[in-house]
Structure formats: structure tokens, C-alpha cells
Amino acid sequence: MNFAKTALITFFSILVFTSFAVEPKSGYWQGLLKLNEETNLPFVFSMNEKNEITIYNAEEEIQLKSPKRENDSIIYSFIAFNTYLKLSIDSKKSINGFYISPDRKRHSIIPFKADYIGTDKPICNKEVVTNISGKWKTTFSPNSDDAYPAIGKFDQSESGKVTGTFLTETGDYRFLEGYLVGSKLILSCFDGSHAFLFTAQYKDNNLVGTFYSGSHWKTDWIAERNEKFNLKDPDSLTYMVKDDLTFVHPDTNKVDIAYPNKSTQGKVVIIQLIGTWCPNCLDETNFYKDLYETYHNDGLEIMGIAYEAPENLSDQIDRVKRYSANKNIPYPILIGGHASKKEASMDFNMLNEITSFPTSIFVNRQGEVVKIHTGFNGPGTGDIYQSYVEETKRLIEKLLRE
Questions:
Q1: 344 and 369 inside one domain
Q2: Residue 396 belongs to some domain of the structure
Q3: 275-287 core/surface letters (b: 16 or more CB in 10 A; e: else)
Q4: H or E segment to which residue 247 belongs
Q5: H or E segment to which residue 280 belongs
Q6: What would the pLDDT profile of 324-333 be if each residue is shown by its tens digit?
Q7: CA quadruple 157, 162, 167, 173: dihedral positive or negative?
Q8: Are residues 147 and 188 in the same domain?
């Protein structure tokens, strides 16, 4: 077969593979994930002339991979995570399908539908009864053995639009967006890894509501205004119990890498425990990429260790390779094992315990652990994130000078 004929066949194969029987309209769409018979998680996305999808969570924009045809469906995969939307284009203004998370053993499929809004991004214009901007002392699963504290941090516009997040002792719930209509609050986030929905009633300066994580879990939550409330210091939750920071884990070529080693000797090192399935880890990794590029030539090394959803090593390696390539991560990520805080705690038994992914261990040039940071409060936390970025840069600069 000659080159021209091969090229022509390839061109038409691609055209057939990605073209839609019905072309959806370009512009903004209102998506709904059906968490249960009574509850839908709303989110907004856009579709351009190439049928590419971008999902919006407050100021966050998530670009999905270009569409691919699978029998009668169209597949949109998330770039950072092993999840995807499987869609059927019903009409120019109507879409149905499913959000699919293959790693989840139960509740891995959530029904999805969307309707066309228009060429302008929707603007919240609700009846505003009160303003909930500010800091809220929050308790999830109150009056139970599983109760845990959090801080609600919200900003509300005059139109009733609410953005913000919840900070917990192990990280934040990322970019939340919604509205306060009358006395009812609705906040949501859909980022490809998590589908979060928070609903609540506002009464007597309190919020009482329900938190849904996908279709598999929900719990109650309560909150009251409290500008002075703080969580435990994330640098105090995990600490050394033995002065022996050593480990051996394979890299993505299945070569065992030990720590410490010649490449880390005399260097400032950050050891980052993550999972490629974890949005807070991705936020931290984006920050660490900047740190690495800024300070690597001055003596900073970063080593990631990933704990992954698949059970076998080869699939874990595939996840890490894809993650590193998609996000252009300049530092190595080793393979820790299965996505389990218990397993990570056993690997790092020189620490009291690993309570969260991510967890970062900061080591000075002399090989001494100077800080262990549990969780990560990302860009969705605003000034809290910015303060941590500046604090961490100051620490790295100090350690590099010593």
C-alpha cells in the first residue's frame, strides 16, 4: 500500500472515530451527576467547536482529553485521573451518559446528563437573604465517633454566588462553587477524582447540612461563624519516633532506589508521599514542580513515592508514568505500593503514622528531618495557600544556605 493511500485511510479513520452523529452546540452546558434518586450534583462545563470539554469549579478549569468514539458512545477522559465521562449526544442541546471511576469497586458509575445553557457563562442571580462570607467552625459527622473538625471559608457575591472550600486537618475540599438561594446553600466540586456536594440550611447564624461524596458516601455537617477557630498545626500531626529515615522502593523501570543515596547526599530533600488519584496531591505536586525548577540547581532534590489504586506493580507503574508525563513532573516518583495509609505507615515505621496523602518530609543537607507536613491546602484556600507557599520557600532557602 503506497504512502498517499495509507495517509488517506488514516485521515478518514480519525474523522469517523471522533465525529458525532449529532453535533452538540458550542458554549456552556449545565451538567448534573445523579448521586441518588433525590440528589443531583450540579456543575458547569463548556464545549468548543472541536467538541473539547472544559469543566469549571470556581476559578479552576479542567480540560478533558479530546473525545474518542467507543461504539455508540463518546469517551472524554480526565487527564490527571483514571476516570472518564461516557456520553451519548441526544440532540444539539441535550447530552446523557455516565461518569465512570474504574478503580472504585462499588458505586463506580454515576448517571450524568447535561443541557445547553448558551454562549455566555451563567451568572448567579438569586434572592439573597444573608451573606455567609467569612470563616465557619465546622464539624462533619457530629455526635458520632467519626466526628472531625474543619473550617468553612466562603466568599459570597451580591448576586448570591458562593465560592470557597472546607479545610480539614489532612487537606482541603478544593474549589467549591454554588449559591445561597433563600436560606438554602448548595456547593459542589467535580474534578474527575471527587464529586463533592454540600447542601445546608442557614438559620440563626448556623449552617446544618449534608455532605455527599459521589454516590457512595454521605454524612451530616454543622457550622457556626467563628473567625478565631483554628485546626491543629499540620506540621505536628506526623513526627519521627525513630531516628532512621531509610527506605527502598522501585522506580518506574522496576529498579530499586534506596534512600539515602549518593544523589541526595549533602542535598536538601523533600520526600513526598502521594497517590496519583489524589487531587490534593496534584495541587501539591504543581507547587513542588515550581519549587524544583527554582531551587534544584542550588541543591534541592524531591523524591515522590506513590501509593496507587491497582494491586499489581505493573499497573501501578503505568499510573505513575502517565501522571508524570501528563503533568511534566521533573523529579522522580517511586512506587510505594497499594493506596493505603496503613501500608505507607508500615513502610515509614520511623514515623508515628501516615494519616493523609500527601505527606511531605523535609530533610536538611545533614540528613536530618526538620519538618513533616501532613495534607495540603491548595489554591482553593486562597490566602492560606499563598502563606504556605511563601513559608515553604523561606524554609527551603534557609536550608540551602546552611
A1: yes
A2: yes
A3: bbbbbbbbbbbeb
A4: strand 247-250
A5: helix 279-295
A6: 999 999 999 9
A7: negative
A8: yes
